[in-house]
Amino acid sequence: MTEIMVPYEYDGRQFEGALVFDDSVAGKRPAVFMQPDWFGVCRHSLDMATEVADTDYVVMVADMYGVGYGDREKSDDELLESATGVRRDLDLILGCGAKAYEVLTAEAVKRGLIDTDKMGAIGFCMGGGIALEQARAGGHFKGTVVFHVTAPNPVGADSNPDFKGRVLAIHGAADPVTPKPMMDALEEELTGAKVDWQIMMFGHATHSFCVKGANNPPVQVYDEDLCQQSYRMMRDFFAQTF
After folding, report:
1. Which residue in 15, 68, 125, 205 has the fewest CB atoms around it within 10 Å?
2. Which domains, and CATH codes, for the chain?
C-alpha cells in the first residue's frame, strides 16, 4: 500500500491530507473521500484508510485540524474540545472540506489514479457528521457512508439539504453518543429531501465499533466482526452506486 501526503492551505492555515491506495493495482479506481474520526490524520486513521482502500479504491483522507494535529497523543477532553469546535463551525466544515476534496482529487487525477465519475465519501464518528454536512451542502458524492456517526444532524437550523447522491448510515442501536432520536431525525431529513437512503442498525452495538482499541463500555467498544460486516456493506453499497 502507498500513502502520499498532500499539503494544502485554507484560510491562512496549513493542512495535510493523504492519498491511500494499493500501488500494485493498474488502472483507475473509484475515489472515496474520507473524513476521519476525532484523532484527525494520524497512524490510526491512515490504517483505517488502508483497510477501506484494499484493492478497490483510492481513499482521500481529509485533514480538518491542521498539520501535525494527529502527531501528539491527546486526552479525551482535548479531543472532544477540538472536534466539537470543528463540528460547530459550518463555514470551516464546508470551506476546508471543499478545499481538501479539491486538492486531493486534483492530485489523484494528476497521478492517473481515479475515475472521477465514481466519487464517494465516508466518515467515522465525528467525521461522519462532517461528511454528511458536505453531502448536505451539495458535495458531489454519488454515495456517502457514515459509520457510528457523531452529530448527524445539520448545524444550521435553516438547513436546505441538497444531497446529490445516496446515503448509508451504519450505526449501533446502543450508541449513547448518537442515540436513536438523532438517527430518527436524520431519517426524517433524508426522506424529506427525497434521498435514496439506508440506515443499518446493529443490535446491542455501541459507539466506535470500527475503532481499534476502543474499550470503554457501555459507551464505545471495538467489534471486529461488526466492523468487517459494515465494510462489506459499504463495498456493496458503492458497487450498486457506481
Report:
1. 68
2. 2-168+175-201 (3.40.50.1820)
